[in-house]
Write a structure and sequence with these properties.
alpha/beta, three-stranded antiparallel sheet, globular
């Protein structure tokens, strides 16, 4: 694995076990003690773990994993979901994307698809987003008009949050919102970890004609802190083929269309 994948795996281990010794890291990840110490020092400098004598332990900010560490997890599944999402976009559509690893992948797929399909050359799409990284990636695409909300950047997700982020949203009409989430509660709705992100995401849901949740199957049945929307506000979910059939049945019983992204490999 490369360094980014190794750091992500190491951070996952610390979060899972709460406390970790160098010997455990060496055995689990198959790296040298010197590499393990350097990686722990790096994560500690990023305030993602706390160094201990001979290892590291989780701290209150360990769950706030920056996107650069989260992108490598479930990457194949996120790509599957992103490609399935882009197939729902038509020339001339106005779509919205919030921040997150899956929606970032959708932004990438939008750029690639629009550049290759002549239908979008004369009838461009508009992407409304509160994620500065997605806006930056799509700004160079002539087939895409980008609308960026205001607000203050949240370093974990690159999302613009706060009162300024919601000022423009009530004045915009969106055909489809592709909503990335942290947790999918099978009974009550979709959630994220941060209340400020949740507030902006709620505003996105209210302005969209159709809300489509995009999430790999690891999010299904997971919990998070702040609620974004109940199931009566969600039209569909796109997830990968690892989702449990019983979870699909539960979601469909809530009136949600479940779209299983195909593995193209």
């Amino acid at each position: 694995m490369n360094r980014q994948e190794r750091l992500s795996a190491l951070l996952d281990l610390v979060l899972e076990r709460k406390s970790l010794h160098i010997d455990e890291i060496v055995q689990t990840l198959g790296i040298s003690p010197a590499t393990a110490r350097r990686d722990l020092d790096f994560l500690a400098n990023q305030q993602l773990v706390s160094r201990t004598r001979g290892g590291a332990m989780a701290n209150p900010t360990s769950g706030e994993i920056p996107m650069r560490f989260r992108m490598v997890r479930y990457s194949d599944a996120k790509t599957q979901v992103a490609r399935a999402a882009v197939k729902l976009i038509k020339p001339g559509d106005v779509v919205a994307l919030n921040g997150g690893t899956t929606t970032t992948e959708i932004g990438t797929e939008i750029g690639l698809t629009m550049a290759a399909d002549f239908a979008f050359a004369s009838d461009v799409i508009t992407v409304v987003t509160n994620a500065v990284n997605i806006a930056n990636d799509l700004a160079i695409r002539p087939q895409v008009r980008v609308v960026l909300s205001g607000g203050v950047v949240h370093a974990r997700s690159y999302e613009l949050v706060g009162p300024l982020a919601t000022l423009i949203l009530p004045h915009i009409s969106v055909d489809k919102l592709f909503l990335g989430v942290t947790g999918i509660d099978l009974h009550s709705g979709v959630f994220t970890d941060n209340e400020n992100e949740a507030a902006v995401n709620q505003a996105l849901v209210h302005m969209a004609r159709e809300t489509i949740v995009v999430a790999d199957s690891s999010k299904v049945g997971a919990t998070a802190f702040a609620k974004i929307a109940s199931w009566d506000s969600v039209a569909a979910i796109i997830t990968d083929s690892e989702v449990a059939p019983r979870d699909v049945a539960m979601l469909e019983s809530r009136g949600v269309n479940v779209i299983i992204a195909e593995n193209e490999h």
